[in-house]
Amino acid sequence: MSAATLLELSGLSAGYGGPDVVHDIDLSVSEGEIVTLLGANGAGKTTVLRAISGAVRSTGTVSWAGSPLRGRPDERARSGLGHVPQGRGTLTQLTVAENLWVGGARLGPRRRREAVDSWFETFPRLRERAEQTAGNLSGGEQQMLALARALISEPRLVLLDEPSLGLAPLITQEVFERLREINARLGTALLVVEQNAAASLALADRAYVLGSGHIIRHGAADELIDDDELRRAYLGA
Ligand SMILES: Nc1ncnc2c1ncn2[C@@H]1O[C@H](COP(=O)(O)OP(=O)(O)O)[C@@H](O)[C@H]1O
Ligand SMILES: [Mg+2]
Fold it and tell me: Is there an atom of ligand 1 within 6 Å of 16 CB?
């Protein structure tokens, strides 16, 4: 039996006040599923994530566990939607420990302390750097912190905007392995936006390809990974 649909976009169009930059997007993510949204720079990937989290204006429908998802980004976050924006989403002036503490604001005080501890267990490097400011971490460490910060409030789905951006290939591999582990252990659904098609198709169950603001392909990740035409035309690989 397949898992229930958690997030569903239907005929979603969005933009920044001028003409829409993404058009008529149909996309879904089931409970516990890993879905990737691929496309070249400027295709509209970030805009789709911002429309889901309520940071840009959109038309069409976004439904969440069967009900319309509406309201401001903080209200959507309270329903269990996490978002790691492009460029990481850490509070660079605060320490690593403070970032996690702030991320856990929705938990009760005791649970919050336990959650910070358990994320330090998951990412021992972050514990070693607990008192350093986030802005002084390496790119890979910042990405791990951004992940932990989003996950600490136990979201049902996390939107990840280019988690591999600016990371060396080996570090990218580590980040993606951590994503797979977290998904398997906690059942958190992931919607991963990437230009790095190879890494994210290897991680994902299903994939959508965005070209100039439209969904031009979708299917099982292992089918798209073998599609030479797609690779040449849209993924630059
Ligand atoms: N804040 C903004 N204001 C106006 N246009 C924007 C803004 N952000 C992005 N755009 C435009 O929207 C289109 C899609 O951008 P984006 O969603 O960032 O693409 P991607 O994430 O795939 O690189 C681009 O043409 C971009 O110039
Ligand atoms: Mg982007």
Answer: yes
